[in-house]
Amino acid sequence: MSAPDLAVEHLGADYFQDPYSVHARLRAQRPVTPVIMPGGAPVWLITGYAEARAALADPRLSKHVPGWHPEPDSIFASLDLHMLNSDPPDHERLRKLVNKAFTARRVERLRPRITAIAAGLLDDMSAQRDRPEVDLLASFAFPLPITVICELLGVPAADRDDFRTWSATIVSDTSAPEVFQAHATAMTGYFRALLAARRREPADDLLSALIAAQDDEDSLSERELIAMLFLLLVAGHETTVNLIASGMLALLTHPAELARLRADPSLLPGAVEELLRFVNPLNHATDRFTLEPVEIGGVTIPAREWVLCVTSSANHDPSRFDSPDVLDVGRDAAGHLAFGHGIHYCLGAPLARLEGEVAFGALLSRFPGMSLAVPASSLRWRHSSLIHGLESLPVRPR
């Protein structure tokens, strides 16, 4: 089946509030389908598990628009040169250099510090127990991962609110072009100054390690370092913020599973995998573009088309997961696509898992009576097709 034979569906603004029902309908009708996104962009959505997994590993799907190159001095050129936006052989080169700095040992060394950060944030929440409600997202889910990634990179914690603002603008589907330009420019300028400071005075942090990373006399250029900082700071907190907030919402709205997890903390590592599958901090993987006509799921996507592999839909595909819309903290969720698949599998997956395990364990232990302060139906989701995240999560911590 080819593009002219398929009806194109226009997705409205309600897509942001409930993408799952849209994905379920599209997946049942046809797992590969053209749509118009809420912002007006024509894309192909791949919603089935088998189809999305295959597409994520298909070299005919490029990370670049064929024939398009950003202006050399544009903000896109400054932020685009990271490994998530690169195809082979550039991807292997960049990932190899970053792997030398972002090691499993460096991540595991963070466990005590992550635990201490979480405890401090929960102390602050405990001090607010006399208030009728606390925003768990603002009080805990955001500051934990942004503090961790800032400390890991050597970014002063005092600057974390700026990064939150810049990041939210960059991943939003509704940011005005002039606001996007201003915030992206501010972020890039900050990175340049930070790199200059670390070159003058190296420290025991990931940024200094990235500057020093060498492979056969190869190293990251200034522009590549800026793009890598952008990737690590945005990806290093956006996904984990939403894992913690959306994961707690899932647990609070499934009290039997919450009680089960609290009664048996040994389930926690597997429960983090199930929550990654169930709540999906990202709606879809980052952009791909067809270099040639590509047949997936019996549908031929023409060349030069924009493709989104909808990992959140794939993780709810009943052909791969039994009763996928049921939260089961004892489920074997191995094979979920929350971290992607193939050469672009998330480099930060071990850090996200560690932060999730510490965060959920600390919350369940400290606040055994936590409950939602508002009806779940009243919660609002951010206007981003990429990020699936709450605007706020009011709770009663007790």
Question: How does this model look, in words?
Answer:
A six-stranded mixed beta sheet has the order 1-2-3-9-6-4. It has a three-stranded antiparallel beta sheet with strand order 5-11-10. Helices cover 49% and strands 9% of the residues. Helix 9 (143-153) packs antiparallel against helix 13 (222-252), helix 11 (177-200) crosses helix 13 (222-252) and helix 15 (268-279) packs across helix 17. It contains 17 helices and eleven strands. The model has no long low-confidence stretch (mean pLDDT 89). The chain starts with 8 loop residues before the first strand and ends with a strand. The longest helix has 31 residues, at 222-252. By secondary structure, the protein is α+β, with helices and mostly antiparallel strands.
